[in-house]
Each structure stands twice: as C-alpha cells, then as structure tokens.
Amino acid sequence: MGSALVVVGAGVIGCAVAAAASDLFDKVVLLDARPETGLAASWAAIGGITPQSDDFCRGPLRQFAEASRGMYPQWLAGLEAGSGIAVPFLDSGLLQVALDPSEQQRVQEQLVPQWVEQGFRVEQLDARTTAHAEPLLSPAVLSAVRLPSEGALEPRVLMSALREVLRRDPRIEVVARARVQAVTPGAQGVEVLLEGGDVVRGDRCVVAAGAWSPELVPTRPGGQFPVRGQAAELVVPGGGGYPLRHHVYCKVAVDDTTVSSYVVPRHDGRVVVGVTYDQGRWDEEPEDHATERLLAALQLVVPASRDWRLTGSWAGIRPGTADGYPLVGNADADGRVVMATGHFGVGITLAPITAALVRSILSGAALTAGQADALRVMDPRRFL
Ligand SMILES: Cc1cc2nc3c(=O)[nH]c(=O)nc-3n(C[C@H](O)[C@H](O)[C@H](O)COP(=O)(O)OP(=O)(O)OC[C@H]3O[C@@H](n4cnc5c(N)ncnc54)[C@H](O)[C@@H]3O)c2cc1C
User: Fold this and answer.
1) Going by CA atoms, what residue is nearest to atom 21 of ligand 1?
2) For the segment 201-239, what is each residue's pLDDT rounded down to a tens digit?
3) Nearest-CA neighbor of 139 among 103, 95, 99?
4) Which residues line ligand 1 (CB under 6 A)?
5) How far apart are the CA of 117 and the centre of ligand 1, in A?
C-alpha cells in the first residue's frame, strides 16, 4: 500500500490543498458531507481578493495576504491549464467610496494613514474623478480611494475549475456525501471515521471543514465560531461585460443601520452585492429583510441599480476565529493531522497561499522565513 493523504472538506481550501499536494502522495482522498464539492461558504462568497481592505490585512499576516494576491495570476493560469476553465479576474482595483462626511473622515483619518504607513498603494479620487472613474456611482459620492492591488472573481467559477482539476488528477478520489465523524491520529497514521461506520485510513489528514472544523478537532470554547453572511445577485438589463469598472465598497446608513455594501460586477452583466456579518448563526437560508437592506444600500451607492433585476440571494457560513486569524499547521505532536481552516472573510483571497503552505508542511520542505512567521500566527495549538 502506498502513501495516502485524506483531506476533510471540499471547499476552496480543501480542494486547493488536494490539488497542490497530490504529487506528494500515491493517493489523495477528499471527503465532503455535501452532494458536491464547493457548496458551502466557498459557494456563497462574493469573490473579492482583498489583501488590503480587509481589517485582517493590517495585522501580522499582511505580507501573507499580499503574497497570496501575488500568486493569483499564476494560480488561475495553472487551474485553467489543468481544467480548461478560465476564471475571469477583474484587476482594476477596489474603489472604497464615502457618501457622507463621517465615513469620509473615517477613511481619510483612520484607513488611509495605516495603508500608507504599511506601504500599500492608495490613489485618492475627489468627487469629479470618482465620477469619471466609475460613472454609475451616485452623484452624492464625496470621494473615493482606489486600492489598485485588489481584484475580484466569481468563486463558483473558481470552484468549477478546481473541481475539474481534481477530477482529471488520477491520484485524487473525491468522495461526496461522506460526513466525517472523527479524525483519530495514531502511531501508524490517521483513521477517519465516516457516518455509517466506514473508516478511511491515511498517513496524514488535512482538516479543512470550514466553520464545521471544531466538530472534528475541538478547540477551546469561543475559539472558533460561525459568522453567517448574506448576499444577492442582480442582472443589468441588456448588459454584457462588467457593469461596473471596479468592485466597490461603501459603508452606508439604511434606516439608521450601517450597512457594509460590497458591490462586485461579474464579467457577463451580473452584479453581486453583500454583505452581512451575523456572528453565531448557522442557518444558510437567506432572509428577505436582509436582501431588502442590501438592495437599499446598493441603490444609495449605484442609483441605476433600481432597474436591475434581482435573480437570487443566499447565505453562507464563514469560519470565524477569536483573534481573526486562520488555523493552519499541525494539530498533533506527530504532525499526522494538519489544520487548514478559520479563514473567516478572506478564504478565497488566501486559498493559493494556504494550499502552498500546507503542501510545504506535508512535504517537510524547509520553510521560508515568511512562511515560518505566518505559521506562528496561525498555529492551531493556540486554541487547542
Ligand atoms: C456571503 C459571503 C461572502 C464572502 N465573500 C468573500 C470574499 O469576497 N473574499 C474572500 O476572500 N472570502 C469571502 N468569504 C469567505 C469565504 O467564503 C470563506 O473564507 C471560505 O469559503 C472558506 O473556505 P473553506 O474551504 O474553509 O470552507 P467551506 O467552503 O465552508 O468548505 C468546508 C467544507 O467542509 C465540508 N464539511 C464540513 N463538515 C464536514 C464533515 N464533518 N465531514 C465532511 N465534510 C465536511 C462542508 O460540506 C464544506 O464543503 C465570504 C463568505 C460569505 C459567507
């Protein structure tokens, strides 16, 4: 019997890990409880590649996130070569806009100085240049900053490409409808117990079960928790191509509530808008009142969206952690169980670099100084 890796969870992280590590083993078994790969948070994600605007990126993993963004063009090219599926990538940058003086002040006095200090590129746009850069934005926009390094893609297309790469790899077996109940490391390897009693054995196991990972590798209470997020999709009548030139983020007040309006155009005339942060909630059913609030916020940012047709809304569960950082690294003393989870709102952004890092851990390759630093921050044992 040859060497075997078991990966639990076929979201963007588990699929990316399986694809990156398959040449290290004779066999890789990727298990997921759902009927198909990529149907949980990775299906619900909006698809911003945000190594700068996310709060996370102003902390110790800043360079890790930036490096992941840097890997994206090559990673997508590799996925296309291995799947025949191109993932359109919008690389014109994020526009963070302000519609009222207090938000303008927050962006200018809090965010911009931090970004500049950390060496990020920031372009300042006044009302006139913002209107020129993104004509569909409201005339009420006071100013914007453009973050040129931020990109966007459609996670469901990314997951299709990953699915096809896995399907074409003779070493990888994807087993859907396989709910894992326990992961037990031992001297000889790891036993992975499935609901129904079957056992899958491997030399190593990567737990990438997103928000559900603590069911398999328990962490201290409050260490990991679900953060539900809701989003909606609209179609621009007669639209082909990207309906907006940038993805756009704005905090706006709707009925005295501050809404984070994140607007991401798709390559074929669709627009996705989010997003909510509902900590502690597990339900994946979208709620009408949340959709209405997202649409009301969108209309404040992009008034023309009144004429866009709503085609769907959904919710997904982000894997949140107490300190906001993922859990990546060995979970047991022998390194039989490796965790790759807790990516909260940046799992799509961090997928390529997480997969590369887990591959390095599994191969035993010497880590770069940057990898070692990142692993110290993400060490799962801080919560075990
Ligand atoms: C509305 C929304 C918008 C978002 N927008 C962005 C964005 O713009 N940019 C960004 O970078 N990130 C975004 N995210 C975050 C991103 O979606 C997540 O960080 C990422 O998808 C996590 O990937 P994952 O593979 O860890 O988890 P998941 O995609 O949730 O995959 C986990 C998998 O594990 C499986 N599983 C769970 N338990 C078991 C078990 N016991 N046995 C077998 N299988 C199991 C599940 O079925 C699932 O398929 C967003 C999230 C949401 C909800």
Assistant:
1) 42
2) 999 999 999 999 999 999 999 999 999 999 999 999 987
3) 99
4) 8-14, 31-34, 39-42, 44-48, 50, 179-180, 208-210, 212, 215-216, 229, 231, 274-275, 316, 318-319, 341, 343-349
5) 32
Alpha carbon distances (Å) from 198 to 26, 36, 178, 181: 21, 19, 10, 10
Ligand 1 pocket, mutate which of 8, 31, 39, 42 (most atoms under 8 A from CB): 42
Neighbours of 156 (CB within 10 A): 15
Type of residue numbered 175: V
Residue found under tokens 């599926």: 85
pTM exceeding the 0.70 threshold for the entire prediction: yes
- Take residue 291 and report the two structure tokens written for it: 């959709």
Domain boundaries, the chain: 4-84+155-223+322-382, 94-148+225-321
The Å distance, Cα 337 to ligand 1 centre, comes to: 20
Q: At residue 56, does pLDDT exceed 80?
A: no
Token duo for residue 371: 């990898």
Whether residue 320 is predicted with pLDDT greater than 90 in this model: the reply is: yes
In ligand 1, the atom with minimum distance to the C-alpha of 211 is: 30
Query: How does strand 94-98 pair with strand 247-254?
Result: parallel
What is the dotted CATH code of the domain comprising 4-84+155-223+322-382? 3.50.50.60
